[in-house]
TrEMBL record:
It is an enzyme of class 4 (lyase). CDD domains: GGCT_like. One of its GO terms (molecular function) is transferase activity. Pfam families: ChaC. One of its GO terms (cellular component) is cytoplasm. Its EC number is 4.3.2.7. This is glutathione-specific gamma-glutamylcyclotransferase. The keyword Lyase applies. It comes from the Bacteria. InterPro entries: ChaC (IPR006840), GGCT-like (IPR013024), GGCT-like_sf (IPR036568). Keywords: Lyase, Transferase.
């Protein structure tokens, strides 16, 4: 069997990978957490009105549950180039090999795009209300920032791994949009 290469999706890669996925398995990354800590000036916001997207932040004692995505080795060069073009557009993320515990008991190392806290787009620590205000108002090349949040929450819920913090944030954003 072709083992291929693994990517860790904790945000939009879970619901819109945009590359051929040979296998997907729920996975946990120990010592990491997802948070809305990246000002998006391309995909979900603009330079004049940045949005917020998820970043994977180092967080000892935390677990981030997401989706491990396997790409066949023959397709990896093209898939990797496409993901890099998407995720490294402003170099706010860096590529890292992250150990994952898969729901089926396997352990793999996956490529993950992790937040660079030294990057000018990093904005960790914003209150939920501040995040909601930004997300409700922003839109970029890939559409409304709120859609990014809503799609992420819906996908996590559908996989049976709800994220209470993101669900609360989605409720705050919906309240601002009504």
């Amino acid at each position: 069997m072709d083992e291929g290469h693994w990517l860790f999706g904790y945000g939009s890669l879970m619901w819109a990978p945009e590359f051929p996925v040979a296998e997907q398995v729920i996975a946990q990354a120990d010592g990491w957490r997802r948070s809305f800590c990246l000002r998006s000036i391309c995909h979900r916001g603009t330079a004049d009105r940045p949005g917020l997207v998820l970043g994977l932040e180092a967080a000892p004692g935390h677990l981030c549950t997401g989706l491990a995505l396997r790409v066949d080795a023959a397709l990896w060069p093209q898939a990797h180039a496409a993901v890099r073009a998407r995720e490294l557009v402003t170099e706010a993320y860096r590529e890292a090999a992250v150990p994952l515990a898969l729901a089926d008991g396997r352990r793999v190392r996956a490529l993950a795009y992790v937040m660079r806290p030294d990057h000018w787009q990093y904005c960790g620590g914003l209150s939920a209300e501040a995040q909601a205000a930004i997300i409700a108002a922003a839109s970029g090349g890939r559409g409304p920032n709120a859609d990014y949040l809503f799609n992420t929450v819906a996908h996590l819920d559908a996989m049976g791994i709800p994220d209470a913090e993101l669900s609360d944030l989605a409720a705050r954003v919906r309240a601002r949009l009504t």
